[in-house]
Amino acid sequence: MSQLEFDESTARQLEVLYGTRDVLRRRQLVRDALGVARGERILDVGCGPGFYVAELLEHVGSDGSVVGIDSSQPMLAVAAHRSEGHDNVAFHEADATSLPVENASFDAALPVQVLEYVAEVPAALAEMYRALRAGGRLVVWDVDWATVSLHTTDLARTERILRSWDGHLAHPSLPQTLTAQLQGAGFDDVKLEGHTFATNELEPDTYGGFLVPFIAQFVVGRDGISKDEANAWEAEQRKLAQRSEFFFACIQFCFTATRPG
Ligand SMILES: C[S@@+](CC[C@H](N)C(=O)[O-])C[C@H]1O[C@@H](n2cnc3c(N)ncnc32)[C@H](O)[C@@H]1O
To answer: Cα(164)–Cα(158) distance, rounded to whole angstroms?
Structure first.
């Protein structure tokens, strides 16, 4: 079955998720890893609703520039709206494996939670390598979905639901192989940091709290999971939350690397 579609409905839901405190924290971690200076040229691959693009425009100032690329037109529409009024930003509808940009034309690039959706990761890494100048920096962020820990009274059902959720993307555990893939693409200084996103609140303002209904909606009709089963799983999580027994944790990984100078 097909992966998650980044259509208008997903764009609306991600717009909400990306305004939550957990994702604000994630953006801060990414910006710290990227270490952007004024005047730099930044490439956001899979820019989604454009939160990074808008924030990075403030950091690079009027002498710098930001290019956002995404394969989804609905995402690009939201992103363009967010950066209205700037003349040092451009958006392109394109695939991460075929970037419409000049060789060596960027100081830094960031695919944040994008490569896990891209079937041909080596092709996308080769494109970002080509787009970066010598000494240019890359920050890659992805989730290892095998690290999800969720309290449940029905382990077999939760396992079934989470394995079906793995079908929402191409590589459920991309961080496990990304170091070797980055090195294989020619990048140097490959480092990783893991960041835990954990919550005891089943509230849309937390990463885990947002995901439970999102997952329940996604898995219906996949891998033999009926609407009743998905609803029962979500209801169990809500019941646990009423008893202060909701628990969600996962590890998200921030990789940094440079194109050799
Ligand atoms: C989970 S969202 C992340 C958005 C953004 N990077 C952020 O963190 O705010 C993933 C984005 O990657 C885009 N995407 C997925 N596969 C892609 C591909 N092969 N080429 C370009 N963009 C892609 C989707 O359209 C979506 O906007």
So the answer is: 10
